[in-house]
Amino acid sequence: MPQHYLYSVLSTSLGWMGALGSERGLRRLTLPQATPEGAMQGLGEEAGAAEDAPQSFEGLHRQLEAYLGGRLTRFDLTLDMEGYSPFFGSAWRACASIPAGETRTYRWLATQAGNAAAVRAAGQAMARNPLPIIIPCHRVVGSDGGLHGYGGGLEMKQQLLELERRAVTGERTP
To answer: How far apart are CA 66 and CA 61, in angstroms?
Structure first.
């Protein structure tokens, strides 16, 4: 039975974000883009036959704005993670367990995903994360604690980490 997909392009305080969902839950989310077209492009092939359904993503939109405003540190969403490798799924679940305002290394992620030697594979899982921000791959750092590879750029990775740090400590945005 073919999958029925819904999509929306959401205007957020950081830019346009594309969201794609199925009957099972949220399937893809793009990082903030400068244009709605850029956000739509990031949704991939599945979005080609999807139905534009902004009302289906109102809860996601509210949670994203609360997160970006420093009022939310953990999302409450149903996700559709069907069709991905078991290791990637394990890595994404481990990543989702990293508390807001904290970071973990790729080695930690590989270990939590079940294969301590699979550090590069853990990096690939983060690079292919279909739900950035929701699965907080920005919280994964190099063994030296440095910021490495992020689809939205290292500046955005730093911005998200700072936003979370302020939300957790209660510090006001400058």
So the answer is: 9
Residue 22 bridge partners (DSSP) = 25
Which pLDDT tens digit goes with each residue over 38-97? 999 999 888 988 999 999 999 999 999 999 999 998 999 999 999 999 999 999 999 999
Question: Considering only CA atoms, which of 112, 124, 164, 170 is closest in space to residue 148?
Answer: 124
For 73, other C-beta atoms within 10 Å of its C-beta total 15
- Supply φ then ψ for residue 29, to 5 degrees: -145, 135
Top CATH class of 86-169 equals mainly alpha
Domain regions of the chain by residue span: 6-68, 86-169
Question: pLDDT digit string (tens) for 120-138?
Answer: 999 999 999 999 999 999 9
The catalytic residue among 17, 137, 141, 161 is: 137
- Residue appearing with tokens 């953990």: 74
Q: What are phi and psi of 110, to 5 degrees?
A: -60, -45
Active site residue 137: yes
Cα separation of 17 and 40, whole Å?
Answer: 8
Residue 1 has pLDDT above 80, yes or no: no
**Amino acid at the residue 163:** L
Determine the distance from the C-alpha atom of residue 102 to the mean position of all C-alpha atoms in its chain, rounded to a whole number.
16
